[in-house]
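note to self — DONT lose this again. spent like an hour looking for the file last time. sequence + predicted structure for the chain T wanted, 1099 res
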Amino acid sequence: MSLNNSSNIFLDSVPSNTSRFQVNVINENHESSAAANDDTDPPHYEETSFGDEAQKRLRISFRPGNQECYDNFLQSGETAKTDSSFHAYDSHTKTYYLQTFGHNTMDAVPKIEYYRNTGSISGPKASRPSLLEIHEQLAKNVAVAPSSADRVANGDGIPGDEQAENKEDDQAGVVKFGWVKGVLVRCMLNIWGVMLFIRLSWIVGEAGIGLGVIIIGLSVVVTTLTGISMSAICTNGVVRGGGAYYLISRSLGPEFGGSIGLIFAFANAVAVAMYVVGFAETVVDLLKESDSMMVDPTNDIRIIGSITVVILLGISVAGMEWEAKAQVILLVILLIAIANFFIGTVIPSNNEKKSRGFFNYQASIFAENFGPRFTKGEGFFSVFAIFFPAATGILAGANISGDLEDPQDAIPRGTMLAIFITTVAYLGVAICVGACVVRDATGNVNDTIISGMNCNGSAACGLGYDFSRCRHEPCQYGLMNNFQVMSMVSGFGPLITAGIFSATLSSALASLVSAPKVFQALCKDNIYKALQFFAKGYGKNNEPLRGYILTFLIAMAFILIAELNTIAPIISNFFLASYALINFSCFHASYAKSPGWRPAYGIYNMWVSLFGAVLCCAVMFVINWWAAVITYVIEFFLYIYVTYKKPEVNWGSSTQALSYVSALDNALELTTVDDHVKNFRPQCIVLTGGPMTRPALLDITHAFTKNSGLCICCEVFVGPRKLCVKEMNSGMGKKQAWLIKNKIKAFYAAVAADCFRDGVRSLLQASGLGRMKPNTLVIGYKKNWRKAPLTEIENYVGIIHDAFDFEIGVVIVRISQGFDISQVLQVQEELERLEQERVALEATIKDNECEEGSGGIRGLFKKVGKLNITKTTPKNDGSINTIQSMHVGEFNQKLVEASTQFKKKQEKGTIDVWWLFDDGGLTLLIPYILTLRKKWKDCKLRIYVGGKINRIEEEKIAMASLLSKFRIKFADIHIIGDINIKPNKESWKVFEEMIEPYRLHESCKDLTTAEKLKRETPWKITDAELEAVKEKSYRQVRLNELLQEHSRAANLIVLSLPVARKGSISDLLYMAWLEILTKNLPPVLLVRGNHKNVLTFYS
């Protein structure tokens, strides 16, 4: 449906012939558009095509008379872009408004540039307007400067994106390959190895045509399933360089990718030596026949192999274009050699060839060779193990994925077609050779049938030859004995030798290119930091010259060894491990159900991929069980190493997706199970603010939640909503990253609120997920309550009331120095900034000295030296950095030391638990959990409870019995019988002096004055209130005396938190209670559970 194009829709300043436009998909043909312009009915609109960039372009057509504007917009057949020369609205004041579909808005239409990564070589990344920009600008209708308008309308992105554009320009001379030369040719050459020419005939002789076809088919099933899985992964996003490593690492993560990438690169490097030695052995055999040996067979192999690998290195270093040309030439030779074989099968055989077992196509030979005839020590799986390496090589194209024009299209198409073509060739050769050549032949032209001789049903006997003596003595010819059967059958034998040369050299060349490319991609990701040196590339194609040299050295080392029979099975298993992980990657990505898994290649199934992975693992053990074990051990070791190092990469792997799905499923499953007291664990909201600002509060909480309970570090941003939300969002990632870096198993959550209490109330209600909801609030003691504004005290006490209202336990932690070290952090940040500026200035001065001499600059340098800024020295234990020396005390050194006190291992001592009120057991459970931690394991529990003086022993026995039933170990139990006596006068005087500034003293004034004071200062402590709770006040003061007497030397005191009844106890009086209760003591935890059982002695 068209949009209304009436000109009165636009502002008056809009030219009358400018129209609004719609979005339609049209053809790109310029003439058709011009012809359409000649027709004025129906009217034309601006038309935009958002199809494939390579086929459909952005197109705009106007009403008649606007062809000039249209021609200016269409940029010579290239992708048209909305540049600054075109605007749907252009006022006479030269002010530009960003426009989409004719409306004044900053909204941008969908473009591919918005979805590119920064630094993408396929084009610049554009930055779409942020939601905040659209939200604010749309409301205010703010005019945008031309430069800003161009930036968003064109999708030019941030200024830094110019580097990406320059990088794109630098790619002009890069050599990129299509699917034929880049993938098909390489895969065919790698799959067609020497096995085709010198072992396939022996396999048919051992297994027969029937089982031989099954062996080939089983091998092809493995490679086809792997090819399908690889195709699915390749088409699920842009593929960069790195081949199998890139596919596996981006699918399963750096742990799997890093482990398989290293051994895969090494396997390719050693494979160079294997193929070159194979070539050298063939050359040495020819030298033997012509009696032209240089030294001896072993040294001749080393000499020829070394010369060959040097030549191959030269071809590779010359550039991918030269290497590709060499591969094409080798493929032509290989195809001629294969064709030569098929031609030879139809050329009539002569007597010499017949004596060697070749009789052209014979039904009797086909029938005789159809079944197996395994020799001693051979069987189906042993023969399969020998053949299977011939089917590998399907990753040859994927390994140079960075040099392909379109890896997403080239790798699936080229690989699958290569598998099909090579399979047909293998099957054709196997069937043909099985139908033409008998299993055993003497090679003696005189072994013909004499009249009257019994043929015993053999095919050769029926064709006039007697090879019966091969049953009793070894023969040199036939499928079972002669590895050169294809040369004998072919029309021209030397061409088969050329084919062998081509197969070995092409495979060696492909491996020599693959190993550095994969290794370079691995090093670029910096998974193994020691290998970063090899990440550097050279030239337009970013050639890994350092990787080439390393591969060359590895290949040379193994060529000089010249004994590869032992390592060959391991290398085959390395390749198979890669295949297994590619299949598993496809299965894993499908199983994770990530919305990002959308492969364009739809011919795959997750269960088939899993079957392919299992099949690859099984084949590894079939080929060589001990090599398979070694492969798994090496891979496991590298996996553990990478996991331990935790590389800082985020590739959106399916492992991440599956972790999310598993966590979600487990959380949902947890909601179906009712809570049970045996499974209770403290799940804490910790009001730390930024987690780095109160590390001690977080450390003590983490000590009893680590590996057992939920811990959420919470921060409340108070102030104007817009500023708070901006600050909150900008710091989320940084603060969670700080927790991860410091190995604290906790989450970070923040809210923006009008006041602190409202924010905490929101956190208490909304934090957590399902059963994983907080049940305990942990806050630091408000040390400065006597100097703080009244609203802060109301909020502080109010959140305690709110927690109890929500039936959440409360833990208040007090240490002598306090928790907040934000000022220290600010000083450190400022000094670090100054130090960086100083270093930069010194570097600039040195540069200027070199350029301008010493005149004038040295004086400036001396001034800089007088800044007297000292460096920050990081502590080895990973704790917060401290400044070693400064002119004045910028911060309290004791505060910094106190902030790390719970990070350290606690000295041998006690945790004194004053379990005065039964809150369900939380006051006892928290210290018990602490004693299970390494840092607190040397601290024993001492239990203090109130009791009657005349029943101390009975109550002590009763408490010991209860603790034993709870299975909680303790060092001692103390029954305190004198809690309720009055404190001494000095202690009570301290308390009275503490509350004196906050008392109303209404009893000393007349009734009218007293009522007036109550209205004006309702927060003050009245005489009536003080008298009503005098006994409770006595108890708090008395408890402090007892704590001073019994627990002064304790490592930690855990004490029942007194509860202030709402409406009865004023905030200031409650703070005075907490102050006098915990005054001049070691670290104190005031704990009050929600009065529901958290301990049980039932099983």
